[in-house]
Every structure is written in structure tokens, then in C-alpha cells.
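Hi there. Long-time user, first ticket. I'm pasting a complex I've been working with (about 908 residues overall). I'd like to know whether the download I got is complete or cut off, because the file seemed smaller than I expected. Thanks.
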Amino acid sequence: MTHYLTRRSPFVIALSLLAFCLFGIALGSASGTTGFESWFTALRDDTAWQIVWDIRLPRSVGACAAGALLGLAGALAQGLFRNPLADPYLLGSASGAALGVAVALALFGGNPFATELLVRMGLTGAAFVGAVLAVLLTLVLARGVHHNLRLLLAGVIVGVVLGALVSLITLMRPDVLQGMQGFLLGSTSFIGWTSCALMLGVLLVCVVLTFVLSRVLDALSLGEATALSLGVPLASVRVALICVLALATGTAVAQTGLVGFVGLAAPHLVRSLVKTKNNWIVLLSSLMGGVLMLVADLMARMLLSPQEMPVGVLTAVLGGGYLLWLMYRSQTTRASL
Amino acid sequence: MLKSTVALSIFLFATSVVQAVVLRDDRQLEVIIGKPPQRIVSLLPSLTETVCALGQCQKLVGVDRYSNWPESIAKLPRMGGGIDPSIESVVAAKPDLVLMAASARGAERFTALGLTVLSLEPRSHADVQRVIRTVAQALHVPTQESERLWRQIDAAIDTAAQSIPAQVKGQSVYFEVNRAPYGASESSFIGETLHRLGVRNILPASLGPFPKINPEFVVRAQPNIIMVGESSFSDMATRPGWGNMRAIREQRVCYFKSEESELLGRPGPRMAQAAGIIAKCLIDKSERSKAEPIDKAKVQP
Amino acid sequence: MADVPQSNNQGVAVNLPKMAFSVRDLHVSLAGQEVLHGIDMSFVAGRWTSIVGPNGAGKSTLLKALAGLLPVTGRIFLFDHELMSMDRKRRAQQLSWLGQNESVSDDLRVWDLVMLGRMPHQDWLAAPSAHDHSVVKSALQATQAWDWRERSFSQLSGGERQRVLLGRAMAVQAKVMLMDEPLANLDPPHQVDWLEQVRCLTSQNTTVISVLHELGMALQADDVAVMQSGRVVHQGACSDAATHSAVEAVFDKRIAIHSLDGQWVALPKL
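Hi, the file is complete. Here it is re-exported in full:
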């Protein structure tokens, strides 16, 4: 079994995940409140065409892209911090994005200058800025990237403190909490083609950068001292990878809100399928994240149609369920040895 | 002598017993209110408004931070929110009746500290009538008063409904509560108001009061009028697929300011005012196309 | 021995041994505490030096400082070049480091793991060359890990893992190898294998500096550096009597060093 595992080609797995993504997108464009019907009537009926092309297709493509960004970020986080429990939000980006949205909603309508700026940025811009600023704050608090533990602690502190600020704002302004409900639980409701283009563009940049820098993650897996002794420019590459992490996470969170578990589960799922170096792990985690998010989004839209469930709930159930099954399966095989 | 003393005692006892009111509140607990309360703390805006509508505003000694009507309560001390009342300030005000929501915290604490707590949370039109009656009983306001108040409110809603021209009735409405998007269906309070005004809600009651709806559903349903319950980030036209909706193209969207939308969702004595606001929106933004041919016919000789 | 012809005061040509490391007035502080106090020492190229001393003497810290992994006060010269100002890649090509108890977090294939040792010689995005492949192959064969090169690291036992890590360190083909407790988890036959490997390396002019707590193995080295409380108490050839008394002294004379079969052994003094 184990020899079979190592001999599976990562290339084949990548192709099959990509095929799953495409299939999922096609399925997503056909499901929704009217089911498959819209596909067939789309060519004749204007509204049906609009529903398929303007609403369902960008939602599915966007879900895939957001999932891919989160999967990539998760693989990065786990490699950088050498911790299998790391997820993309561990440097405070989730709380930062939530704070950005809360502040934007609270300020809107108050200060005219702020209002104009906010309308132009949109809530997505506010969420992105919040996420990136939170990661920068973590870097400043940890005084650089030299100590993993300090970075992790600073990330936890930033996450908790910013989360408390969000709670404070929503307490003083309950209408802000209303506006944030959709954001906090994650949803692909209003993803259009511009959002898709943005996410796919950022995804391309992040994948290329990570692929180029992935050797450092391999060296890092041997330990910091060994990585340094191999001549790796550890500090500068760490900063670069953390920037990629912040960019990927911020972009995904800005468009779909806080969707948990995808970043955590995708790399684990990939490693359960194939054992390979970090360059492939990162790419495959990205594809796996896209598949995970697509399936979750499909189920979120179909289970209670025409109502929708928050995507975050389904990603947790799906990702967590599969991991539980993996854990149980490996326990029984070990017990039988 | 003895007989008259006994008779007097029985009479006094009887009147005092009659004076004590026993009510069942929304926690299904029995609450005994002996004398008419003189110091009232209200921790829910709709209950504050009910007390004032019954003419007992002067007895309020404290309200929650979200109560904002009428003007006369502006100077009253604020005692926290509904979910997080300040136990200390409420107790310090020495109230003989505390009105709070059934879902609020602190009821057991107040009761343990010796205060009388009445938990009421109006959620529907029927609830408003019941709550007005219950609060009137608790405040020892005569039943005629509360019934009169309710009839006033009911009549005002009817007036609002009648002010809407016939061709507007029967149009379909989508009421968005927040941008997730959560909509108000027929079974919500706002939905009931819409129903009384004679318009159709695209969200049926089977979805629950505030369903998180697939935006596609709204596009398919093509509502005649859209109402947005929150004024922030009015970017509806930019939502994918929404720019082409008839209602958005023809600008038949009502944006309610935050005070208005607060009022729309508050089941209390001002619900007639709320109905009036919605009616005005319906009249303003309804389809005029059916009216035009008739006008042209009048104009042409 | 690579000697550099020099001339002494009388102008007579003298062959001085080349120094792999020259350490001048080295001070190292960890978490605010000074751990190494003013170390002055040199390591001759092409010889195997083992560093011994009681716990907390600063042996691992000295080794890390020599590898350039710690901030130091003082000067360290690697083949007459200032260590700290060396180009990172050049330093990585000349120094190979094998740390103590360093956990491997990823689940790599044995082959891929040893290939990581070739990183200092590879271009950033280049695929491994044929030369890289042959170096990795010989490293794996030298540590008897060739047969399970396709297995994943997590499936190996402690001793097998240590051998793979050794192979990784050898794949660097550096002129200097610094090893901290390289015999951890190794059973006696493989400890002897390691010994033979080191002898082979020094015969090819590689400098080996190791920290070993197995005194028996440590006394197989060419030179011994004895440390106590952050200072170097003695440094000399292993066969010197002065070295033996220094070693016995630093362990509070609880051991005695004897000669047996032409090798030095340390026996407890009961």
C-alpha cells in the first residue's frame, strides 16, 4: 500500500483534480433554484441565460478560485511553520478582514470623505486591506520573521485582539452585525466575473511565486538550522512567502468571506494521496482546495433550495468528515499491524 | 362591631386580592403584580413604546440603550442592551417592574435579587395586540384603554392599506433585510405588514421568517418592487445578474434609512407608522404603465 | 595533509598545516547569558577533531557558531576567510551541518531528502544534474540506505532515519563537516560504519568536527578538544597523555583512559 502511495504520479493527480474542478464548475452552472432546466432553456430564454452566465457560472468559477487560493495558503502556512495544524488565518488575517468590514460598515454614511472612499473600495476592498494590515501588524509585533514561535504567538494575539474590536463595534452598532452576517459565515452569493478575474490573476501570481520558492520549504522541513546551513536565504524568503500568504488569504476572504477548514484540510488530503516535494504539494493543495470549495458551494446552494446555507458550514463538515475518516482508517491499519 | 370589622377586613382583603394581577409572561411563568407599578424599567424598545403609548411614560425610570421613542425618554438613564443589561443600574433604580425580552439574559438574576420581571417579546402582529393587553394589565391600566389603543393602530393600518391604489395591490415585493442576502418572508413581522397592505411577497412563509436566499431566486422571481432594509452600500445594481432586473432598471427600489428600517422591524405600537412608510414607498415606486393609457385616452379628444 | 609553504624567522622554509578553522576571542550569548567565554582555537584541515566535555559545557553552541548559525562576537575564519562575511552559498558549499535531534516535519522520500543536500551546488530552479544523482547514490550506499531510497522518511526506524540524515550531510561534499551527536539511535555495527566513513573522509582531506558523548568513539579521533563551562581547557592529539589527563580531569576523575588493542577506551573508575 505504502509503495503504491509513493509511486502515484503527482502529475496524474493534478490532472484528475483539474478535471474534477471543471466538472464541478459545469455542475454548478446547472444547479440552483431551477436545477438543470436552465441549461436547456438558456439559449432560448433571456432570464435563464442571464442566470446561467451572469450568476451561476461566475459563482462556481469564483468558488473554485477562492478555494484554490485558500488551499495554496494552507500549504504555505503548514510548510512555513512546520506545523500540520497551521491554516491560512493563523497570522490574524481573518480577524483583520472582519475588522475591515466592520469599520467600513460603521463609518459608511457618517463622514462624507470616508463614505466616498468606501464606496469606491467596496466591502471587498475593506476586507482585503484589513487582512493585509493584520498580517503586517503580526510581523511588526514579532519583530521580524526570525522566530517561528514568536510569529505564531503574535498572530494569535493579533487575531484575538482584533476579534475583540469587532465584537465591540458590533455591540455599539447592532446594524453592523447584520451587515456582517453573510461575511462571517462565508458565501459566494455575489461573485461576478470581475471578482473571478481578480482571484484568478492573484492565484496565478501566487502559484508561480510559491513554485519558485518551494525549495526553501523543502529545506525548511529538515529544520531551521539545517536549512540555514544549506545556504538558503531563509529570512528574505520567509518574508516573501508570508507576503504571498497574506495576498492569497486576503483576496479569497475579501470575495467569499471567512470560509474555514479549506486551507487546513486541503494539504492533508493531498498528502494522503501522494508523497512528493513541496512544489507539487503546493500546486495540488491549490487544486484540492478548489475542488473542496466547489463541492461545498454546490451543496450549499442545492440542499435547501431556494435558501442557501453558509459555505463555511459545509466546508467544515466535508473537510472535517474526510479527515476523520482518514484518521480512523490509519488507526485501524496500524492496529492490525 | 365585630361583624363590621370582619366585614371591613374581608372587603379590604377582597379588594387587595382583586388588585393583585396574575399574568403569564412569554417564559410561561406566572407573575404576580400586587400594586400598580410606579417605577418601571424597560429593556426592550417595543416594550418602552408600549408603556408610553398607554400613557404611563412618566413611570419609566430606566430604559435600554436601543430605546429611542418618544423624545421624553431621551433623558432617562440607559441600562445596557437587551442582551447585556447592566444588573447594577437596574437594581439601583429600585424598580417595581422590569420589562424585558424573553430572549434577554438576566431575568433569573433580577428575580433572585427580588425584582418583579415580566418577559414579553412581540414578534408578530397578533403578538403586538397581546403584549399591549398584557402590559396594560400589568400596569393596572383599564382594559378599555388598551383595546382603544389597539383599535387605533389597527384602523391606521387599514387606512394605510386603503391609500394604496388598486393597481398597486397584488404587485410582488422583495424585502431585503441585509446584504447576505437575508430576505423577509411572509411569516416575518414585516411580511405580515406587507400582506395587510395587499402586496405579494416573493418569499413564501415555508422558507422561515428570514431565509438566507439564493440571489438567483430573486432574479427569477422578478419582483415589481424591491425594498432594502439597510441603507449601507447600495450596490444592488452591481450584483451579477441584478442589473437587468426590471425593478432595478426602472429604479423601483426603496432604500429605507436606518431609523426607518429599525421602525419597520419593531413590533410595537408604531406599527401603523411603519405600515405608512411602506405604503408611501409602494405608491411612489409602483408601476405607472397601467395608469398611462387611461390618461392618454382622457387627453385625446 | 595540505601544507602551505611558509618561512620562519630564519628564512628557512617550513610547512605549516593549513587551518580549516581559526577562532579568535569568540564570545557567544544565548538568551542574554554568555555561554562561550573567549574561545581561541584552531582546527587543522583534513583531521577529525572531537569535542568532549560535561553537559552544559557549550559544545553544541561552539559547533553551531562554527557553522555560522549563531550571532557571535569575535572572529571565525574558515580557510582564512572571515566566516560571517562569506557569501551564503559559498559557505554552504564548504560547510556541512548535521544537527542534534532535528525533527523532519515533512514526509519526504529518502531519495528526495538526501538530494536536498545538493542544494548548495544547484542553481535556484535547476533540476538535479547527473552529477547530483551520482553523489546522492554514493551517499546512500555509504550509509547503507540505498535499498530503501523509495520509502518515505516517516516509515523508517530511528537508526535508519539517522543514517539517511548522515547521507544528506555527506551529499553536500563539503570540505568541512560539523556533526552534533551523529551516533544517536545508531546500533554498534552502524556506529562502526560511521567511524569508517569519517576515516575515509579525512583521508580525502575533509575536516570533520564532531560532538560525541560516547567517549569510546570520541577517543578514536585524531584530535580532542576538551571543554568545560564555556571554555576550551585543552586541545591536542588523541594519543597524547596530556589529552587523556585533561579528559579525566574534566569528568572529575570518575573515568580512566586505558589503551586496549591499540585503541583508547574510557572505563569507569569504581
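A couple of notes from our side: The mean pLDDT of chain C is 88. Chain C touches chain A at residues 64, 67-69, 88-89, 91-93, 95-99, 102-109, 112-113, 116-117, 119-120, 124-125, 150-152, 155, 168, 172 (CB under 8 Å).
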